[in-house]
Amino acid sequence: MLNRLSQRFRSFQREFPRAFWPVVAVSFVDGIGRTLLFPFFALYVTQRFNVGATQAGLVLGMFSVSGLLGSMVGGALTDRIGRKKLIIVGLVCSALTTLALGLVNEMRWLYVVALVSGLFGELAGPAHQAMIADILPEKQRQEGFGILRVVNNLTWIVGPSIGGLLAGWSFLYLFISDAVISCIVAVLFFFYIAETKPKPVEGQAQESLGTTFAGYATVLRDMPFVAFILTSILLGMVYIQMYGTLSIFLRDQHGIDPQGFGLLMTTSGITVILFQLWVSRVIKWRPPFLMMALGAAFYVIGFSLFGLVAAYWLFVGAIIVITIGEMVIVPTASALAANFAPEAMRGRYMAVFSLVWALPAALGPAAAGFVLDNYDPNLLWLGGGLVCAVAMAFYYYLHLRLGRQAKFAPQQQ
């Protein structure tokens, strides 16, 4: 299996543009910095400031809320000043605010720094997405985003292992390491990554800064795109429960300890690493909105199972079913968002696309907590399955309405 995976990577290396691979390599380095810190942050907050999980969750929620603003500002600036400059600025500012998170010694100041850190942490997100869309032609975007998913999952194997070792010595080492890695990535971008922002049409006047930000109104008037975003937010509200609420549910309702939950997450990561490239190659020949509906169908089954079964091996099966849906949905959604966007507005479109993850991260855990505290906990997962079914129906509707357009047509074999 690993030999076939290596062969598939070499095949992709020959097929994809040379400019794509330095971005992939640098993303891997950046991902290690992110994943060596993030899994331990809530633990750091509760231990360092002697507070409960509620306060730690509030800090994480503040990251998400300020990240929304950072993403919107970053999307406009990406279209205005270019991808490379904004990514470098975002990395350096993120390094400084991350270091500040590790040095602050009062809870009230942690809230303030978290707001600033979330803002700069998401500033360059749309620029990264726009850069990939710039480099890859439409026919390769779905597979390209799939490759980035494999790389991201590899960082989740490497990063937390390093982070656990560093945290055993001092939590401060986590923040220092992440800041140093961000600076290294900024240097790599400066020397090895070329600007990819399309050149303006000859004779076309450059937008003013105000006009650039006003361009978000144009994005929000693109009703098919807005429908796609709202449907994806519905799906994201359910999916986000896998990374927070699920561990509490399995512990309290089924007695599964953190080690058992960690094994479930590892199963998901290994599944992506082994099969994402193959799945990406298979689904690129199929209508993308129809593939989104198919992925949502896997979510319906997987999340509903958590409310219906009690055996650990069935929970493993549910995670695998969800991961299959995830391998279909995530790269397809990124490719669709890029294909919706006019070339000159990619940054702003990708910034609005970031709502698909940011809003569920900000609102989903609180909504799930309300259900767990006041109703039968199994209803959370059965209701989640129903929400995914609604999203599946909307994706199928978008397939019927938009599937014949050239920019949403599957590749021809």
What multimeric state do the chains show? single chain
Structural class: mainly alpha
Q: Based on the structure given, which CATH architecture of the largest domain is correct? A: Up-down Bundle
Query: Runs with pLDDT <50, length 5+?
Result: none
How much of the sequence lies in strands comes to under 5%
Strand and helix map with partners:
Elements: H1 2-15, H2 20-49, H3 53-81, H4 83-103, H5 107-121, H6 125-135, H7 138-169, H8 171-192, H9 209-221, H10 223-239, H11 245-254, H12 258-283, H13 288-306, H14 312-340, H15 346-353, H16 355-374, H17 378-402
Please tell me about this protein's structure.
By secondary structure, this protein is mainly alpha-helical. The protein folds into 2 domains: 19-137 and 163-195, Growth Hormone, Chain: A (Up-down Bundle), CATH 1.20.1250.20; 217-408, Growth Hormone, Chain: A, CATH 1.20.1250. Helices cover 83% and strands 0% of the residues. It is globular and about 60 Å long. The two termini are 25 Å apart.
Task: State the gist of this model.
83% of the residues lie in helices and 0% in strands. It is mainly α and 413 residues long.
Keywords:
Growth Hormone, Chain: A; 2 domains; mainly alpha; 413 residues; single chain; globular
